[in-house]
Write a structure and sequence with these properties.
It is a single chain. This protein folds into two domains: about 1-25 and about 95-295, Vaccinia Virus protein VP39 (Rossmann fold); about 35-85, no CATH class. The chain contains nine helices and 15 strands. It has helices at about 45-55, 100-110, 115-120, 140-145, 160-180, 180-185, 195-200, 230-245, 250-260; strands at about 1-5, 5-10, 15, 20, 35, 55-60, 70-75, 80-85, 130, 150-155, 190-195, 215-220, 265-270, 280-285, 290-295. It has a seven-stranded mixed β-sheet with strand order 11-10-9-12-13-15-14, with helices on both faces. The chain binds S-adenosylmethionine. S-adenosylmethionine binds near residues 134 and 196. S-adenosylmethionine binds next to α4, β10 and α7.
Length: about 300
């Protein structure tokens, strides 16, 4: 059994009282994806990962030459990465909260004026507790945590989960040593291996008096041809090959709507149809993506961080 911090009590205070039955075995769905390690210092970590995912471990193997498999998981001094094989393969994909675009957005992003903040209802004095039911590489969750919210992330793909878990561990290590502001953000993020449909089903319904529901549920299911930036395309292709297209997003949204205390936010490509053909209460539209917001009830004027 696993005991989790799941949301707020009826007085708005955070509570830690959800007990879950054992999760579905997260290794079930993993395809052929060897773990490659060419760095003796990381061998133990690679062995652990290969065992966790029930995949073969290849030592001293060159991903450029491994044409029998489309992707490998590379373990080296920079952490765990998903690497396409072959000579013309793009670079590795990893969860990164310390450098790159995510870090840049933390330092120079638009704060509470960002579309994602408005979609989630974040403003001065209002910091909803958020359940991200499609964690992926955790970038959206990181932005929400940067804005002051506590974010629980659920990810059902064992490989994506392993990438995100590794990114969070590396960031924690670095932040604990030299970046207290980053550490503060990371401490608001919690990752769980779960299919969100199972997780939500166990949360109880909004009508139950003791329901421990998240204030806001955030959903960003896979969708083909989403954004145009080259690195996003590279990542999308890899993700499609690993996790498919999240064809059950309709079902997930229907469940989210019965479990969110205040609202459900769905991120979509700008021109994509509504999930489940369900028109939202309102929309916020950006250049390439939009947020469909489904209001359950009005957010209060004051909601302290959970
Ligand atoms: C487009 S990605 C999310 C990207 C994420 N918003 C980010 O900022 O990195 C969608 C992810 O949701 C996961 N997912 C989809 N449906 C899920 C479900 N029912 N339960 C848990 N994870 C799910 C997929 O495995 C995939 O990793």
């Amino acid at each position: 059994m696993i005991v989790l911090c799941a949301g707020r009590g009826d007085n708005g205070a955070p509570c830690c009282a959800l007990t879950l039955a054992p999760m579905t075995d997260i290794t079930q769905a993993t395809k052929n994806l060897p773990v490659v390690c060419n760095d003796e210092a990381c061998r133990k970590q690679a062995e652990g990962l290969a065992a966790q995912l029930r995949q073969p471990l290849l030592l001293m193997a060159d991903p450029e030459q491994l044409i029998q498999t489309e992707f490998v998981l590379l373990v080296d001094g920079d952490g765990v990465a998903l690497q396409q094989t072959g000579r013309k393969a793009p670079g590795p994909i990893r969860a990164d909260f310390v450098g790159g675009a995510v870090d840049h957005r933390r330092k120079f992003g638009g704060g509470k004026g960002q579309m994602i903040a408005r979609a989630a209802g974040i403003k001065a004095g209002v910091y909803p507790q958020i359940l991200d039911v499609t964690a992926g590489l955790g970038r959206d969750a990181f932005v929400l945590a940067t804005l002051g919210c506590r974010v629980q992330m659920l990810e059902r793909s064992p490989v994506v989960y392993a990438l995100l878990q590794d990114g969070l561990h590396r960031a924690h290590r670095m932040a604990a040593a030299e970046d207290p502001a980053l550490l503060d953000i990371l401490q608001r993020m919690e990752l769980l291996p779960a299919d969100s449909r199972d997780y939500l089903a166990q949360l109880g319904s909004a009508t139950a008096p003791d329901a421990k529901l998240p204030d806001v549920i955030y959903m960003d299911p896979m969708f083909p041809e989403r954004e145009k930036a080259a690195d996003v395309k590279k990542e999308m292709r890899a993700f499609h090959s690993l996790v498919g297209k999240d064809e059950d997003a309709d079902e997930l949204l229907a469940l989210c709507l019965t479990r969110a205390r205040y609202r459900v936010v769905v991120k979509r490509p700008r021109k994509a149809p509504f999930v489940g053909d369900r028109p939202p209460s309102f929309q916020l539209e950006g250049k390439s993506s939009r947020f469909d917001i489904y209001t359950v009830r009005k957010l209060p004027d004051s909601l302290p961080p959970a």
